[in-house]
Amino acid sequence: MVQVEFLGPIGKNPIALEAKNLKDVAKELQKDEELKKWLGECAVAVNDRLVQTLDVELKEGDRVTLLPPVCGG
Amino acid sequence: MLELYRGELDVDKIFFRWRKWGERKNYGAFITFVGTVRAENDIEALSFDVYEPILTQWFEEWQQKARAKGAYLMMAHSIGDVPVHTSSYMAAVFSPKRRVALELIDEFVEDFKANAPIWKYDVITGKRRYARERSHKIVGSGLLADT
């Protein structure tokens, strides 16, 4: 299982998913109507490292984090 | 150095401490940016969520860029509510001479706005509303919508 976390305004509790890679995570999250609107706007981190591709293998216990648009200051 | 505070920043105290530090380290230039919450759109305050693990990495990468130029960065930011006419953000660059500091403060503050993992909310009648229209997608956003 991997843990998926939703930061800031997404306001959703973390979920656990069976996923071998980020593509699997994408497919699962796209099934959630509520989440769909966020996916096009979110950056993605695996174990707190931002990633730029879906070609990322995942292992048991990995954390995937969704970061919606930001505005500090 | 990165500093996070619950609520508004004590700007004068932070500025004083940073300035003293820069003097001891023999930096000739010290440039600060202070972000203050403006009274507009009937807001009482702004409110912030911060994701510290990635913010720390983002900051450390900038610190390395600064060090390569002989400069040093400081930043302070608020978590939670910050009332109007108080400050939520301070950034500073120290360098031996002015040119490097003037250029770095611009690049650093602009990249902060674009990529630092911080989320802003307007607070109106005690309720938080995500400032979506003022927010910026982090570089590489949208991956999970692509399959």
Taking the alpha carbons of the first and last residues of chain A, their distance comes to 36 Å
- By CATH reckoning, the class of chain A would read Alpha Beta
Q: Considering the protein shown, what is the CATH homologous superfamily of chain A? A: Beta-grasp domain
* N-to-C SSE string of chain B, H for helix and E for strand: EHEEHEEHEE
Estimate the strand proportion of chain A: 25-35%
Indicate the mean pLDDT of chain A.
Answer: 96
CATH homologous superfamily identity of chain B? Molybdopterin biosynthesis MoaE subunit
What's the domain count of chain A? 1
Radius of gyration of chain A: 12 Å
Structural class of chain A: alpha+beta
Mean pLDDT of chain B comes to: 97
End-to-end distance of chain B: 39 Å
The counted number of beta strands of chain A is 5
**Domain module tally of chain B:** 1
Coarse shape of chain B = globular
Biggest sheet layout of chain A: 5 strands, mixed
Order the strands across the largest sheet of chain A as they lie in space. Answer: 2-1-5-3-4
CATH architecture field of chain A: Roll
* Biggest β-sheet description of chain B: 7 strands, mixed
Number of strands of chain B: 7
